Amino acid sequence: MNNKEIAKLTEQHVASTYGRFPIALVRGKGTKVWDASGKQYTDFVAGIAVDNLGHCHPDVVAAIRQQAGRLLHVSNLFHIESQSLLAKALTQNSFADKVFFCNSGAEANEAAIKLARRFFFDKGEKFRREIISMKDSFHGRTMGAISATGQKKFHEGFAPLLPGFKYVPFNNLEAVKKALSSKTCAVLVEPIQGEGGVNLPDKNYLKELKKLCAKNGSLLIFDEVQTAFGRTGKLFAYESYGVKPDIMTLAKALGGGVAIGALAATNKVMKSFVPGTHAATFGGNPLACSAALAAFKVYSKAGFLEKTAQTGDYFISRLRELEKSFSVVKEVRGIGMLLAMELKQPAGSIVEDGLREGYLINCIKQNILRFIPPLVITKKEIDGLVASLSQSLEKLQANLK
Q: Could you give the angle at the alpha carbon of 103 between the alpha carbons of 191 and 30, nearest 5°?
């Protein structure tokens, strides 16, 4: 089938919840993908920060093939070897003591909301039910997750939202101080706001947030769905800012391209999840955990994260060259391989130019180009993208005169 035929099938039979580009991607390897016509693209979207190791990493593929021939799914009523090994790897390399597995970032955040409230319920503080989250945040599409999300566009048409959430500006400690009360069970924050525009925290913001939570007796939850597994140059973003949360949510790159989510927490908090309090039928299944284990071993290889950080530094330096050269660029920001170029005009034409030139680019909030490529992207591929961006920015700027 060609691109048009596949697109027609999609339009006829798939819910129209996405605005799709007119290509069907049918194959991928490393940083490259190919559409149904055979055209090659260099991927700077990575399945929205999922394919951190690139497409079809051989270690992940081998693990999937091996596990698929042994056991695809069993109930969590029984012990699952790959699940236990993955939990061990995550806890040994993070602040956490225990892990709950699910299927997505939204599910992980739902679990975090439930755990925080249940923790205080078990302590006899049943009035502690409120959660403070940030404006411009994004935590997923389920009712609990969109209720925690501080963006009105995700709320529209789905009222009534779940009660018990307050929104304050990101990077504003005074606003958090005013919002905290004896009813606050947790503060939920993305260390870096991805969907909100790649908004970085001030140097001491997260550390001071932890102090405020500790003083108030509240929990601190980090949504690391987009920022974990090397995206910031560290295994977890909290390491980049020197502060440990009480609860952390994970998904996206955890499975190396396979759907899996996780909630990680300290023993102190996780003791409130006992049989009957929470569950996920497919959570932590043998196939997904085997893929995630293989991916985790790659993330853990000596020098992998260091090289990612170095390439990220090179990438942002090249983008800042464009910022200096084109007045239409408002700001370049980011860390590691989570970067953004904010324009003073809508950026849709640049995404379309990229498609024609063989580059996949993501645009958020209409005027922000978000770059979240596989961590194995090369300097040569970055140079190629920058050259393409330069031509697009030149056209965009000329049209504004």
A: 75
